[in-house]
Amino acid sequence: MDLVPALQEPLRQPLKSVLGPATAKVMAEHLGLLTVGDLLHHYPRRYEERGQLTHLADLPMDEHVTVVAQVADARLHTFASAKAPRGKGQRLEVTITDGSGRLQLVFFGAGVHKPHKELLPGTRAMFAGKVSVFNRRLQLAHPAYELLRGDPEESVETWAGALIPIYPATAKLESWKIGKAIQTVLPTAQEAVDPLPDTLREGRGLVPLPEALLKIHRPHTKADIEDARSRLKWDEAFVLQVALARRRHADAQLPAVPRKPAPDGLLTAFDARLPFTLTDGQQRVSAEIFDDLATSHPMHRLLQGEVGSGKTMVALRAMLAVVDAGGQAALLAPTEVLAQQHHRSVVEMMGELAEGGMLGGAEQATKVVLLTGSMGAATRRHALLDLTTGEAGIVIGTHALIEDKVQFHDLGLVVVDEQHRFGVEQRDALRGKGKQPPHLLVMTATPIPRTVAMTVFGDLETSVLDQLPAGRSPIASHVVPAADKPHFLSRAWERVREEVENGHQAYVVCPRIGDEEDDPKKSRKKSPEDEAEKRPPLAVLDVADHLVKGPLQGLRVEVLHGRMHPDDKDAVMRRFAAGDTDVLVATTVIEVGVNVPNATAMVIMDADRFGVSQLHQLRGRVGRGSAPGLCLLVTEMPEASAARQRLNAVASTLDGFELSRIDLEQRREGDVLGQAQSGARTSLKVLAVIEDEEIIAEARQEATAVVAADPELTRLPALRTALDALLDEEREQYLEKG
Questions:
Q1: pTM confidence score
Q2: What distance in Å separates the CA atoms of residue 12 and residue 27, rounded to the nearest whole number?
């Protein structure tokens, strides 16, 4: 069933006489609004009350704002300038107030005449413009404005309600112009198709969709806004959860080979040689995984674990169970460094159990092979042959594993490390390598709040490892304000020396490599914080050079970054792991999976250039042995900046779930979801993933029940329509494919 044509009408042609082609063009290019339906779903960001005034005192700098305020006074000045040398230049200064503060408006030249006549003291209006500072005072230069007369002669009924909607706007299209355009199309809201099943809507006391659209755009009371937002939040949560529930349902229909470990096989032999006992968490999660592996439908499980909680051990035991049951297991890592690291640690942990077919190999042993894009042709041929014949039970590699040439004898389990680096499509390409769909285990060390897991990874069941293995040490974290207190940085290098003198090692992390050619296009795009610093981020090669000649002279310092030849990278990591290097100066290639228990200190340069989750990941590389870890976050950002607050948050807690919450609150969560949803056309508008936890959890339950009863949604054509609108065609086929 197609969307009701009235809501699908393009804004450009049919409404030419109403919106005007220029307005429709700006809406399409700057706000992504193409149809009447898009415009109706462009909700107000907030509302101003006619009887109350906005807080001028809280205006953000350099942002495009809309304020409702009253004119306090207006003065016309004349001045001499190059254009008007005889003192005939004109400048109109208008002061507006809202009780919380005052703001100056300025108009120049010919632009003064209209506002001079209209902006008289006592007049109330909406003003829109970019906030700037002149003579230490906030001002709006040449703002657009709309008078709020409230008299019966007012031609447009736009401001009839007591609440004035303020829309997300652009410099080219003010909020009230968007409001007027919405008034024009608002009657078509009556024809909006309601995606929620009647029983669900009535059972939860939600207003119908047409009513919600009317109330969000033209509320008469705050209760109207609340009703509308509650309803529209449910739409967003429910339609998204139905998409995910359909994917789970399709996956559950697929056949899979049950994989039960042999009673005295490889897994038993491996457990017997472990020098430690598994934590309760590891045992609990392993049991969940083994239950899933024993069923005749593919496992789809997300394994979340704090940095260093022992996820790799849990994944390895799952792989061994599958090999025991006659299948093969593949571990997919995002980088070559990490694939090599995993291969090394798996072979070390398994010992003679990884030497299948070799002299000295144990009776139950299998072969563990590595497959990356940069391997030599002969080694690669050997690895591919071992996979085809089934000689290799376990393969560890990068996305090279997805290539067409790679054939498995019997692929039973795919483990994906660091899910956020892989698209869903890549996951499926590897799963397509099995004769029947293999089981899937996805691991992430980036803790994800429960609601985000339900929203972004809603097609996976979730297991959480929240216990650190015994013997792990706490990590002390401190912010080093290099600009305010240079001696703190000197002390940081002394601390690194002290760690090395005590027989330990250290990492120094930088945001950039340093051998890039300066690209003029790249250098132009700067964030406000970059602008404040006026310098490029610190680079590995420069910092290493400075340290060798200065603060860390005499220590064994090496560099590691992504553009080195893979053999060189591997050699550097081996020397560092063996303790032949004191200090490793690296980019974020060490972010995940690198495990050197003797490394106790980490100095992160320009720490403000990294995200909260990334800093937490990096910090997890130290304190992996019995000695306590130290993480120093070096920054030149001023104390009051948002960047410093972010770093203070990281320094104050080791709880990754708490940090991921902070991270999400600070970023626009639409971005987070947009990337992860891969193909969802619109990110969430009214649903806030952190605040609306209950709605998301309930929507998931409702969606699961609806899809179980009617997987094709044949009895709910309106819901099917909403689903089609959320997912573009490619993504829809992708969900169908499961």
A1: 0.64
A2: 9
